[in-house]
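[Automated response] Your request has been received and processed.

Submitted sequence:
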Amino acid sequence: MTLSLFSQFSPVLRAFGDRQTLDGLVLRELTLGVDGPVSCVYAPFDHTPASARLAIVGIAPGRVQAENALRAAGAALRAGKPAPEAARIAKLTGSFSGAQTRANLVAMLDAIGLATLFGLKTCADLFDPSRELVHFTSALRYPVFVNGANYNGTPNMVRTKFLLRMIETHLAAEAVALPDTLWLPLGPKPAAALQHLIRLGALPAARVLDGMPHPSGLNGERIAAFLGRLDPARASVKTNVAKLMLARVGLADRVSSLSA
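Generated structure:
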């Protein structure tokens, strides 16, 4: 784990208070780059645990995640924590942890056999922060904004040089640092970033588990279809039940082959 940016911005992090927000002068001080309407801002998401057996990849940290991580880093530094520990605390605080999202994710991970592969009773055990068996990351490690709003996948990160550079530097470095970790993209945008790393030779295709629905509570119908809990006759036209069930079978076969 390199903490060069954490060290560079440590004075700003140390001053970031419990009620402070990411705007004004602080936003400008933390800006890493701007390309037209697209801007990238530093937030302490650098920590990459060597113990991780699973990497969960989202699109990019949002403003709320960034502010939570910045506040945690500031509090840790003011408490005298060394940079590596402050970075670890910030990362664990800022990473997604919604109860429903995590419950959905655990159910799907268990359904494809990851608990068995990892020798666990349930993948809920992966989320013990003291063990750091999960690496929460994003295709774009640091927060990206488009016209001030959270980046949602547009413009295409693989076709936009400003964003592609982040994939080929930060995300690629994480892939190299975790050669035995399984990588789980949450949706097609992060999957495209991982496929780009596969083409570059930075990540083995066999380590990527693609095809699982996003675990958000807003995605309940597709999750139920993936888990085989949805009667196809009751599905909306937006949910391809057969495709999702086949995705589960395919992922389960992939996981089974890893344990063979």
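Summary generated for your ticket: The longest helix spans residues 241-259. The chain has a mean pLDDT of 93.
If you did not submit this request, please reply to this message.
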